[in-house]
């Protein structure tokens, strides 16, 4: 019981926690990007034109963010750089597509955003490619 109430933690617990967080966020984000990648032609005609880039470019950036960056996140490769496009994409989803409704339609995006911000601030942990390379 004393350990459960303690505010101290071990290095292995932090590294395991970051691994689980990275793995969970990446695995849960991949289906969103994969669906858009497989059905790219169907999505591009109705996709949001963000900042005047065009719907095709905006969709390609979201596919990169949600699918390919998720794979890098799972591996823990270039983790802090990898989560930045994901964070930007989720901010667009929450504040532009869902009008800032963090408790309504944008709730899932908000949860992903919080998790990715934690990974950005804390890093990937030692159970990652970055951790093995010593970055």
Q: Topology, pairings included?
A:
Blueprint: H1 11-38, H2 40-44, H3 55-75, H4 79-97, H5 107-122, H6 129-133
Key words describing this protein structure:
single chain; 135 residues; mainly alpha
Question: Can you tell me about this structure?
Answer:
The chain has helices at 11-38, 40-44, 55-75, 79-97, 107-122, 129-133. The chain is mainly α. It has one domain (16-127). The longest helix is centred in the N-terminal third of the chain and has 28 residues, at 11-38.
Can you give me a brief rundown of this structure?
The protein is mainly α.
Quickly give the structural class: mainly alpha
Shape: globular
Cα distance, first to last residue? Answer: 36 Å
**Radius of gyration from the alpha-carbon trace, in angstroms:** 17 Å
Profile the largest sheet. none
Number of E-type strands:
0
